[in-house]
């Protein structure tokens, strides 16, 4: 088995202040494999930025371990050479062109000067490379930020809220760019977001973080599949319900029932109902999107608290 590119083990952070401590991150353990696009998903204040700052070595953890490419980050900043990041949308000189900004960064970092044209092409900014960043849209700035993150040809790209503040077209461009980083350039991508819809479309796997703790980790596929169901309209409904309940969980909802069965099981649902003399008026697959799943998870959490 290949080593994970990124591994967090029982990671924790307490911010100490005059009035005591704030536990911003607690017992976070996740591992990200090579070539994955991994989403770190949670509402505002959940601890996403704190985690990202720790794994970029900007602040130190209060507990736990960070391993990058199988090596501990602690006392080993050299391992960060293989990491590129976009945090806070990237900071650029507004009166310099996109190209000049990348040249300045390449000089500061001592890497990437020879790759600037290719990077501008990769992020779709070749035509605007000579324009001042001042006139760039938010989406263009974010994409320039991604180009900057790629200057050192990193194996792991960390993007903090990469689609924040973008319009629909900008989101679409960023989504394609992120997917292509993994698919065409072999990068591993770790991104944070509070925009569930975006994460659903761009990530292979996600961790949902709430109040500093990971409350669920799953592939997008599994997460959605777990919440699949079949919406049934039948008569008599009560009889249908008791027949279904012999085999599957049900959620009655007005004059329909949500059967917690997969689409593959639909024929069997039908057979059982027809066998019991029940009339079926409709049976449609229903899939909650990640947003609803996420809301139900965070609401369950809040209710438990
Ligand atoms: N420097 C700091 N000092 C004290 N508390 C902090 C500091 N930075 C963050 N926090 C607190 O830690 C918790 C997690 O914040 P963090 O910024 O990591 O969350 P987030 O998920 O990135 O949210 P957002 O999307 O709003 O930035 C919050 O309660 C926040 O108020």
UniProtKB/TrEMBL annotation:
Quick check: keyword tRNA-binding in the entry?
A: no
Query: Gene3D superfamilies annotated for this entry?
Result: P-loop containing nucleotide triphosphate hydrolases
- Every copy of the ABC transporter domain together lies at 6-236
Q: Which InterPro entries match?
A: AAA+_ATPase, ABC_transporter-like_ATP-bd, P-loop_NTPase
- The answer to whether UniProt assigns keyword Transport to this entry is yes
Q: Give the keywords, sorted.
A: ATP-binding, Nucleotide-binding, Transport
GO: which molecular function terms?
Answer: ATP binding; ATP hydrolysis activity
The similarity comment for this entry is: Belongs to the ABC transporter superfamily.
Q: What is this protein called?
A: ABC transporter ATP-binding protein
